[in-house]
Specification:
The chain has 11 helices and 10 strands. It has 317 residues and is of the alpha/beta class. It folds into 2 domains: 166 residues, Bordetella uptake gene, domain 1 (D-Maltodextrin-Binding Protein, domain 2, 3-Layer(aba) Sandwich); 99 residues, D-Maltodextrin-Binding Protein, domain 2 (3-Layer(aba) Sandwich). Helix 6 crosses helix 11.
């Protein structure tokens, strides 16, 4: 009996270490070039070495991350297809669309949240204001004269902008772009005057003076930009603008796959050089949560954004 038990343990151990048995796809719900795409490719290179199987990145942008999410939801639940997306997919979209082609709560298994990313409200350097007070005064003096970019209708920057409009009593014109990587260049080019963007995306043009910072979301100022006040400090705590990046598997995927992805991804996040140069120096708050911790977090986030979407009155269908 003991011999049989030992054999079963060996089989279970082998199965746990057998995954992956073929190439792994990381489906990124955004276009190439943005911070999440860059991170996905860095992870893919390191995981390929760790797993002995190719890990390939597939960009599948469109429809507020719905195309990529639906694709992964319909993929085999064998642990070889991973969704890499942001808070928009699971915290925001379910409250904007009357019907989605998947159940955000039931069709996915959270694996790990890699990072949190505070977002800045940034402006073209030529605008006639340098702070939030000046922005509000200008908007009230000339209603509808200021526009702001987002990376899509219903995205977090869109909701944050609508919440700012609501709480400040001003009229800003929303201009949606198709992807994170397009909004900041639109501000730099003067196509729009404002956008909400993550620190990682904003830092190079901020340092070169091609844009300027107005305020930052999150509970405290960023050590990278300590001179930039938070919306809470300025009297607008409702304008919550942080994002998170996370990995998900289709529901029913092997627990061994979820555990291995989480553990090996966390090892990468904990590498001193990678952690500092690729994450902290670019404004990311490193998380590396377990599947259980991530599951609890993203459900709480969903409840929060339900209230924001309802207060802003944003619906997409």
């Amino acid at each position: 009996m003991r011999s049989l038990f030992s054999v079963l343990l060996c089989i279970a151990s082998f199965a746990a270490h057998a995954w992956p048995t073929k190439p792994v796809r990381i489906v990124v719900a955004y276009p190439p070039g943005g911070g999440i795409d860059v991170m996905a490719r860095q992870l893919a290179d390191k995981l390929t070495a760790a797993w002995g199987q190719p890990v390939v990145v597939e960009n599948k942008p469109g429809a507020n991350t719905i195309l990529a999410t639906d694709s992964v939801a319909k993929s085999p639940a064998d642990g070889h297809t991973v969704l890499f997306t942001t808070d928009a997919t699971f915290s925001i979209n379910p409250h904007l669309y009357a019907k989605l082609p998947y159940d955000a709560q039931k069709d996915f298994a959270p694996v790990t949240m890699l990072v949190l990313l505070q977002q800045l409200l940034v402006a073209h350097p030529g605008v006639p204001f340098n702070d939030l007070k000046g922005l509000i005064e200008t908007a009230k003096a000339k209603p509808g004269s200021i526009n702001y970019a987002s990376y899509g209708s219903g995205s977090q920057p869109h909701l944050a902008g609508e919440m700012l409009k609501n709480k400040a009593g001003i009229d800003l014109v929303h201009i949606p772009y198709k992807g994170i990587s397009l909004a900041v260049p639109a501000v730099i080019a003067g196509e729009v005057q404002l956008t909400f963007a993550g620190i990682a995306t904003s830092t190079p043009p901020l340092k070169s003076g091609r844009i300027k910072a107005i305020a930052i979301g999150g509970p405290q100022r960023s050590p990278l930009f300590p001179q930039v006040p938070t919306f809470t400090e300025l009297g607008f705590p409702e304008v919550e603008t942080h994002a998170w990046f996370g990995l998900f598997l289709p529901a029913g995927s092997p627990r061994e796959a979820s555990t291995r992805i989480y553990q090996d991804t966390k090892k990468i996040l904990d590498e001193a050089d990678f952690r500092q140069k690729q994450l902290i120096d670019k404004g990311y708050d490193v998380v590396g949560s377990s599947p259980e911790e991530f599951s609890t977090f993203f459900r709480n986030e969903s409840d929060k954004w339900f209230k924001v979407a309802r207060a802003a009155g944003v619906k997409l269908d």
